[in-house]
């Protein structure tokens, strides 16, 4: 595998991250894997069957580390928009909670937690769960899900974390973008997004009320 930072700037994988405005300081931590399933099978024997490897496309590899910089898993993001499985997430043996960003977390500061690892790279002190499983997060984390009020899974996940006592961001009506990366690509700065999140963070009954209004719009 090659780091994205080591590729020529006209390489499709390099251009893909540039197009999405991913901060270039993170390119050295992201990788290009030309045969993702084959490579995974060298780490975890039999993870993918021979039949499933008939179509083994290149993927962006996003490694997950614990607080001690040990690899606990990784995610492969397809470059092909026609790919049925956009993301493939691999958890290493013995890992309970696959949380991205633990190795660079400052527990003395406010911690945000989003769904996608790439989205987390735009916010300070931010974790990602690579999905909607928030098991293992600290109670003082601010949960920031995608702005998809018609998505039943997201609405259900918001309801669950509110019930469990977390602080959650309920996006205001004037935010139309579906996720943080899209907000960045439409011209918002990281500082502006953090301000929106901080001004629209709720818990308890207030969060319940805001959620009921949000999902109706």
Summarize the structure in short:
The chain has helices at residues 12-19, 36-43, 117-120, 152-163, 180-185, 190-199, 204-214, and strands at residues 2-3, 31-33, 59-65, 71-78, 87-91, 112-114, 126-128, 142-144, 167-169, 201-202. By secondary structure, the chain is an alpha/beta fold. It has a 5-stranded antiparallel β-sheet with strand order 1-2-3-4-5, with no helix packed on it. A 5-stranded mixed β-sheet has the order 7-6-8-9-10.
Q: What tags apply to this protein structure?
A:
7 helices, single chain, 10 strands, 5-stranded mixed beta sheet, 217 residues, 18% strand, alpha/beta
Break the fold down into its secondary structure elements and pairings.
Layout lengths: L1 E2 L8 H8 L11 E3 L2 H8 L15 E7 L5 E8 L8 E5 L20 E3 L2 H4 L5 E3 L13 E3 L7 H12 L3 E3 L10 H6 L4 H10 L1 E2 L1 H11 L3
Parallel strand pairs: 6-7, 6-8, 8-9
Antiparallel strand pairs: 1-2, 2-3, 3-4, 4-5, 9-10
Helix pairs in contact: 4-7
Describe the protein.
This protein is α/β, with parallel strands linked by helices and 217 residues long. The chain has helices spanning 12-19, 36-43, 117-120, 152-163, 180-185, 190-199, 204-214; strands at residues 2-3, 31-33, 59-65, 71-78, 87-91, 112-114, 126-128, 142-144, 167-169, 201-202. β3 (59-65) and β4 form a beta hairpin. The longest helix is centred in the C-terminal third of the chain and has 12 residues, at 152-163. It is globular and about 50 Å long. The mean pLDDT is 91.
């Amino acid at each position: 595998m090659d780091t994205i930072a080591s590729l020529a700037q006209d390489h499709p994988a390099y251009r893909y991250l540039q197009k999405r405005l991913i901060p270039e300081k993170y390119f050295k931590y992201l990788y290009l894997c030309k045969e993702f399933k084959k490579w995974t099978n060298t780490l975890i024997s039999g993870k993918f069957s021979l039949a499933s490897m008939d179509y083994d496309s290149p993927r962006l590899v996003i490694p997950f580390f614990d607080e001690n910089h040990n690899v606990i898993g990784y995610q492969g993001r397809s470059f092909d928009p026609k790919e049925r499985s956009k993301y493939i997430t691999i958890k290493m043996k013995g890992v309970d909670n696959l949380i991205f960003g633990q190795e660079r977390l400052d527990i003395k500061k406010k911690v945000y937690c989003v769904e996608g690892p790439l989205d987390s790279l735009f916010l300070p002190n931010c974790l990602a769960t690579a999905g909607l499983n928030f098991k293992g997060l600290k109670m003082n984390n601010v949960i920031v899900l995608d702005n998809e009020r018609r998505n039943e899974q997201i609405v259900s996940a918001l309801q669950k974390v509110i019930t469990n006592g977390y602080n959650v961001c309920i996006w205001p009506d004037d935010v139309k973008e579906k996720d943080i990366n899209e907000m960045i690509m439409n011209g918002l700065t990281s500082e502006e997004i953090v301000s929106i999140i901080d001004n629209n963070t709720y818990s308890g009954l207030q969060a319940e009320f805001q959620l009921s209004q949000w999902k109706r719009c």
